[in-house]
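Take a minute with the sequence and fold tokens given here and flag any structure token that looks odd. Thanks in advance.
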Amino acid sequence: MSLLQLELPAPAKLNLFLRITGRRPDGYHQLQTLFQLLEFGDSIHLTLLEGSALQLDGALPGVDPEHNLALKAAKLLQEKAWPGLNGARGARIGIEKRIPMGGGLGGGSSDAASVLLGLNQLWQLGLSDQALAELGLMLGADVPVFIYGRNSIGEGIGEQLRPLHTGPAWFVVLAPRVNISTASIFSHPQLTRDSHPIRIPADFGSASAPVPLHNWPRGTALPEGELGNDCESLVRSLYPEVESALGLLGQYGLARLTGTGACVFASFASEASATLALQAMPAELNGFVSEASDLSTAKRALEQHLADS
């Protein structure tokens, strides 16, 4: 029986560390990072339409609908499945946004990945995760990690993924009221661009010995002093709101920037301790508590849909 509609989560991610190890001739930066998926995220609502129209319900503040990554993902998949769009199927795309925009949590990339995963199922295309990840990479370097749905070491421009397992933890994520452009940070002349890559053991994050997160970055096999974010010092200097949030959260745990910001995070051993830390933050500072995921909410939901059909 074919599906007429499908709802999938689109999880947020954290960069538990981020090292910038060089710059390619095409301007892209070489990175080394650890992508950690969260239970918290957006929701994507997909409905099959007659004909080939693609409709995006609602507009995101400050985002031209034609530049919305979720809609661009649908168009890309449609063109892949039906070259020339002859006989193409359509869909309505609804996005229930929870992930702060411009926060370094990968919201746009995650939305795009869930659209690719969902429409692949709704349109009965049967494309592999690898094929979807290759399409996703055309939209952004973060999209493939959401397609595969596994916590991973990311290298290259972030698209070379080595999946790993991480242990249980809860995160407090704060969202300062500022939208930071990734492009503006990566083009800034004061950005650190020459960090050496960390040597990561082959068995790092194995199923039998997952990476401990509850006191991140302490207690791992990697050098703690090299598990920072190369964007953090620059972002701190440019955005006092981020500097303030790091200071406030740093009273309760080791606070770090994710991606190019503006969001900051700290890990905790329990939901109760994370919630207490969030409740201690000023009322005007938005934030949330989320459990860490070992397999993404989108992949789990898709597996459940397949099992039920």
